From TrEMBL:
Residues making up the signal peptide according to the UniProt record: none
Pfam families: Glyco_transf_4, Glycos_transf_1
The name this protein goes by in its record: D-inositol 3-phosphate glycosyltransferase
PANTHER family the record matches: SULFOQUINOVOSYL TRANSFERASE SQD2 (PTHR45947)
Species of the source: Gulosibacter bifidus
GO MF: glycosyltransferase activity
Length: 427
């Protein structure tokens, strides 16, 4: 029998944060604990109260090391560990935990610190990148030209973190290509974040009122305003409403926009909801719509597919990986209000039975993202299996539907080119 591992997951966002990276991290932690591993998570404290506690997620006991953190006020909820103190805190956690494996979730503050401190200790390091810089652009308060400079600096620094990583993953093949191109990398593995499809309940029956649903952070890169303007063009479609689930810094601005567009009586802002409430909202919806330009996978879109919903999505980043034109939904060009409206109208005006077939096809397609498969792939990496072997299985099972979009990864072990600079990193 294979010996259980002591796993340390380093994450800059973790519940009670609500976002895709936090969702994946808690699923990873509980999934590995369910497989018998001793799981520790190191993350910023969710308040000024910090320390180490045993926390329960999905019925599993997880040791969570919540480090001293500060509120990042340009963002509506983000807390962070001071970068110049991160390595100090990480040294203490590593001394205490003595992990067999480190799995970091981004090459930012805590992921960076975990790699810098863990690499010299002979700990196996696995990395997953959930970060899209577009997700942070609205919150930096920097003008565009400085954002571009900052992005170059970040990529250069992140490269040093990636260079110490024995296997680097990201949720989709398209996201892996993006990471390879921008990070001067090769051999990035595409491993789905996964979800448990049995948690969701498709309802293939007439629904009243009909609704277009968006679920996610209410922030700029999600381009919810595009959905709202497209929805305004559907004023002559009877018995229809737009539902927005999630919170974020743009909620008040979007509520104001709904009044300006004259659609506020047909737009429902749910804010944050419980998992049980969210699953019911999915089941009751007619169409799922997403205009985001910065999705590395989009767990919300997968949840919608598991709920039997057809999808209308922007043709950007990883969304075409999930939404195949004319099969389980329609795509429109990013920012194209008219194109979005046309796709929504086409979906709404087709016979219900035909629209139902889109939903059933999506339900079939999402099965390859089963979370148990994701846990198996990461566990194999933790035990030191050849990343090429793991990557081939991941491609065969999860990315075969992208044959007409990108080529699969083949060849030797993942290669991460070292940065030209040999300068030593400071704290």
């Amino acid at each position: 029998m294979t010996k259980p591992l002591r796993l340390l997951i380093a994450a800059d966002t973790f519940p009670p944060n609500v976002n895709g990276a936090a969702t994946f991290t808690v699923n990873l932690a509980s999934g590995m604990a369910a497989r018998g591993h001793d799981v520790h998570v190191v993350a910023p404290a969710a308040s000024r109260r910090h320390g180490t506690w045993t926390e329960e997620y999905d019925g599993q006991q997880i040791t969570v090391h919540r480090l001293p953190s500060d509120r990042y006020y340009p963002h509506d909820w983000l807390r962070y560990v001071k970068p110049w103190r991160a390595r100090h805190h990480m040294r203490r956690v590593l001394d205490e935990v003595q992990p067999d494996v480190i799995h970091y979730q981004s090459a930012v503050v805590l992921g960076r610190a975990a790699v810098r401190e863990g690499a010299g200790r002979g700990i196996r390091i696995i990395g997953t990148n959930h970060l899209m810089l577009e997700n942070m652009g609205d919150h930096t308060l920097l003008p565009n030209f400085l954002q571009n400079i900052a992005a170059k600096i970040w990529w250069h620094d992140a490269h040093k973190t990636f260079a110490e990583t024995e296997a680097l993953t990201t949720p989709t093949r398209r996201a892996a290509n993006f990471l390879e191109e921008n990070g001067q990398l090769e051999g990035v593995l595409a491993i789905s974040c996964g979800l448990r499809t049995t948690d969701y309940t498709p309802r293939f029956e007439p629904k009243t009122p009909r609704s277009i649903l968006f679920v996610g952070r209410v922030t700029g890169e999600k381009q919810i305003d595009v959905l709202m303007r497209a929805f305004q063009q559907l004023n002559n479609v009877p018995d229809l409403r737009l539902e927005i689930v999630g919170g974020g810094d743009q909620k008040e601005n979007l509520q104001k926009l709904s009044r300006e567009l004259g659609i506020d009586d047909r737009v429902l802002f749910h804010g944050y909801v419980t998992d049980q409430e969210l699953r019911k909202i999915y089941s009751d919806a007619t169409i799922f719509a997403i205009a985001s330009i910065a999705e590395l996978q989009s767990i919300a879109t997968m949840e919608a597919m598991a709920s039997g919903l057809p999808v209308v999505a922007a043709n950007a980043m990883a969304l075409p990986h999930l939404v195949h034109e004319g099969e389980n939904g329609f795509l429109f060009e990013p920012g194209d209000v008219g194109g979005c409206a046309t796709a929504l109208r086409t979906m709404l005006e087709m016979p219900r039975e035909e629209r139902e077939q889109f939903g059933r096809r999506g339900l079939e397609m999402v099965q390859v993202h089963d979370i148990d498969r994701t846990m198996e792939l990461f566990e194999r990496l933790y035990y030191g299996e050849d990343p090429v072997s793991v990557g081939k299985d991941s491609w065969n099972e999860q990315d075969h539907s992208l044959d007409d979009v990108v080529e699969p990864v083949t060849g030797a072990l993942p290669i991460i080119r070292k940065p030209e600079s040999n300068a030593q990193d400071g704290e």
